[in-house]
Recover the amino acids of this structure.
């Protein structure tokens, strides 16, 4: 074979390569993608007024709302529509089917890599089987990032998604930002992301999910849903949540008010920590919790001199008392009403005394219900502002 | 370019070994470790690393006795020709199956994370052909590529691990030492097979210009890999918790999804991780491919290994497509791990060493 001929064949090969090997199965241009920003997942409950009668069967189990931003509007262009977002509601026999079923109704392909938050409806949380199915999908599909914030709502998630809050028309982003800006700044709720939620269920079979409430034009996250064994047991209000969070959160910063004489004093906690210790006296397990906090006094009584040690001591005691009551009240609710150890006492026991834990592991619920817990709060006032 | 120049330096062997030890298992070994020892997984990994030193010691002892030979020649010399050939064939078959399974898992993962609509056959075939191209150029070329890749792989990897630190909760590692000792020992033995690629030193003899340092090199590679493996296990368990780690097929992948690189608008870091991981797999698969063709060359006493590379491609490709799904592929690997991997790590080198000492074969190099 002459070199010339060889070259020609080589050239032919190269051209063929170009012709045959270009393109890519997964190529997808960005404007053909619909970025799902929020999910609201509900159990399907047939509503005669609105729903297609054909859906009224045993197979349809989910009703899921997907919210898409109107990208053109955010880019400041004159888009075709004026809405800040579009919400599509789809129903289907499994959670995955609902979003695969969007295909016939959406002119783009949905993409879940950028979800900002997921809302679970109350009915879904009550249904053990469905909730487990949803969690499995969220864990199995790698599109769902493990850092998505999770909230629960005492109502319909599909409705919550459609609210247009004044601060930011996109509910899902709003929730995400609420989580971000309140990190360690509030005790109204505990931020939960998907990864933590899955971990809670894997390890303790129970979890707290922050509770979302919706108003006309705004939303609020406060309180928590108590979920035990993949089933909704009940709700904690703000006060109770705060008490429980004293034990769970680390270095939180928050405002506390405590009654002092006829007034209320305000105290700003800048750093707090809690410690658990376990005692075992003649086979009676008991738990002792120490909460330590330090911070500044923000409000005191006008014309009263606080610049002496006794006064400071008194104020500290008053604050300690109010915190103690709060925590005790929450623990009582958790122990007696729900028998749910969502504050991680069992886990702490396992870490400190594995042998003790082995004994009570199998009937921890009953043990927890009657576990004597003593609480000791130590408050330090570090700063008092600029007046006497 | 330097096709006849098939001598590599000690440093290059070290780098290649490190790359090979970081094979496919890097993404899943924390799960195996946790399945064995729950939150004590890192202890099992340390145990496995110590066992790997024993393997390394045995293998380098036998290699040093026969500096110009590969496994094919010295096993023939020591245990008669027919046995040697048989063992070498077994060795090459084992390497082929390992390679096919690595390739399969590589394909599965890339399909899952990066290219969900691309047929797995295409992903695997393109990988194989790329490797074949590299392997035809010889071992020395492979080594030089390794020198470049090692920086591209490890600097980002270690940087990524630093970003995970804010998410760690080291109390997940408590309580320590709850696993019974025999179980830890058994677990260490099983885990020690993530260091299987040490056996490749058996074949490296005639390719290295300074074989005296072989033991030091293998020990350095094992130490480095061991340290990173232990750190990775600790981080994985402290981020995901021991129960969470068990539920993930590729826990390290999940770890990558959790991290948030500050200031970067990157949502799917796992895709980023896959890219570095592809480079690791690439170097590993090409090394395996080279050595399979190398064994065959030595058995056939051929001059060049080039002609044996391309016929390997369809064979490996077909083997890797036999399992129906990832579960079956894992079963294959499990089978390899249970019965076959240990053979070339400890019993066969030890047997060769003992027989060689009794028959006074080979040169015994003084320890330095």
């Amino acid at each position: 074979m002459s070199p010339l001929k060889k070259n020609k064949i080589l050239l032919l090969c190269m051209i063929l390569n170009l012709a045959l090997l270009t393109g890519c199965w997964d190529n997808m241009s960005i404007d053909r993608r619909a970025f799902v920003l929020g999910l609201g997942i509900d159990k399907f409950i047939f509503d005669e007024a609105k729903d297609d009668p054909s859906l009224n069967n045993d197979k349809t189990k989910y009703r899921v709302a997907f919210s898409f931003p109107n990208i053109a509007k955010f880019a400041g262009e004159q888009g075709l529509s004026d809405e800040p977002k579009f919400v599509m509601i789809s129903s289907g026999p499994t959670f995955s089917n609902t979003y695969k079923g969007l295909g016939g109704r959406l002119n783009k392909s949905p993409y879940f890599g950028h979800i900002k938050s997921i809302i679970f409806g109350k009915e879904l949380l009550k249904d053990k089987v469905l909730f487990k199915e949803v969690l499995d999908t969220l864990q199995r599909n790698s599109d769902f990032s493990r850092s998505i914030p999770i909230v629960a709502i005492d109502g319909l998630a599909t409705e919550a998604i459609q609210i247009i809050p004044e601060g930011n028309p996109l509910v899902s982003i709003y929730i995400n930002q609420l989580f971000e800006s309140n990190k360690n700044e509030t005790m109204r709720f505990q931020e939960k992301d998907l990864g933590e939620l899955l971990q809670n269920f894997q390890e303790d079979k129970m979890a707290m999910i922050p509770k979302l409430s919706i108003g006309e034009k705004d939303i609020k996250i406060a309180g928590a849903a108590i979920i035990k064994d993949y089933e909704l047991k009940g709700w904690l209000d703000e006060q109770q949540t705060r008490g429980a969070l004293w034990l769970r959160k680390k270095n939180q910063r928050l405002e506390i008010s405590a009654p002092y004489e006829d007034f209320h004093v305000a105290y700003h906690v800048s750093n707090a920590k809690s410690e658990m210790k376990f005692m075992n006296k003649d086979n009676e397990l008991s738990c002792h919790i120490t909460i330590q906090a330090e911070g500044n006094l923000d409000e005191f009584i006008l014309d009263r001199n606080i610049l002496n040690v006794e006064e400071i001591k008194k104020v500290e005691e008053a604050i300690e008392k109010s915190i103690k009551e709060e925590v005790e009240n929450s623990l009582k609710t958790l122990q007696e009403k729900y028998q749910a150890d969502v504050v991680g006492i069992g886990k702490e026991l396992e870490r400190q005394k594995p042998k003790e834990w082995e004994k009570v592991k199998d009937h921890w619920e009953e043990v927890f219900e009657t576990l004597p817990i003593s609480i000791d709060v130590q408050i330090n006032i570090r700063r008092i502002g600029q007046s006497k | 370019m330097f096709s006849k120049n098939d001598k590599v330096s000690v440093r290059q062997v070290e780098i290649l070994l490190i790359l090979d030890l970081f094979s496919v298992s890097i993404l899943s070994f924390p799960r195996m470790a946790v399945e064995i020892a729950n939150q004590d997984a890192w202890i099992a990994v340390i145990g496995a690393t110590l066992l790997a030193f024993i393997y390394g010691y045995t293998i380098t002892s036998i290699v040093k006795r026969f500096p110009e030979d590969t496994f094919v020649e010295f096993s023939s010399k020591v245990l008669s020709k027919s046995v040697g050939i048989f063992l070498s064939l077994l060795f090459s078959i084992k390497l082929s199956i390992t390679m096919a399974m690595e390739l399969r898992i590589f394909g599965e993962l890339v399909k899952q994370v990066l290219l969900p609509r691309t047929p797995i056959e295409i992903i695997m075939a393109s990988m194989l052909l790329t490797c074949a191209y590299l392997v035809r150029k010889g071992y020395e070329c492979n080594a030089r590529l390794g020198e470049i890749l090692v920086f591209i792989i490890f600097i980002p990897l270690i940087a990524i691990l630093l970003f995970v630190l804010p998410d760690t909760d080291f109390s997940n590692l408590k309580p320590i030492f709850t696993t019974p000792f025999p179980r830890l020992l058994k677990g260490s033995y099983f885990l020690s097979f993530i260091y299987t690629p040490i056996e490749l030193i058996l074949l490296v003899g005639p390719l290295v210009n300074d074989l005296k340092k072989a033991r030091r090199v293998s020990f350095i590679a094992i130490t480095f890999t061991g340290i990173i493996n232990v750190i990775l296990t600790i981080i994985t368990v402290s981020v995901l918790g021991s129960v969470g780690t068990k539920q993930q097929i590729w826990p390290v992948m999940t770890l990558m999804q959790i991290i948030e690189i500050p200031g970067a608008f990157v949502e799917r870091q796992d895709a980023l991780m896959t890219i570095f991981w592809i480079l690791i797999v690439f170097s590993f698969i090409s090394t395996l491919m080279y050595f399979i063709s190398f064994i065959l060359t030595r058995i056939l006493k051929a001059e060049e290994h080039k002609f044996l590379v391309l016929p390997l491609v369809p064979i490996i490709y077909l083997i890797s497509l036999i399992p129906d799904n990832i579960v079956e592929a894992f079963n294959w690997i499990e089978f390899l791990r249970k019965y076959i991997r240990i053979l070339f790590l400890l019993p066969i080198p030890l047997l060769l060493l003992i027989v060689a000492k009794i028959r006074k074969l080979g040169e015994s190099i003084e320890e330095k």
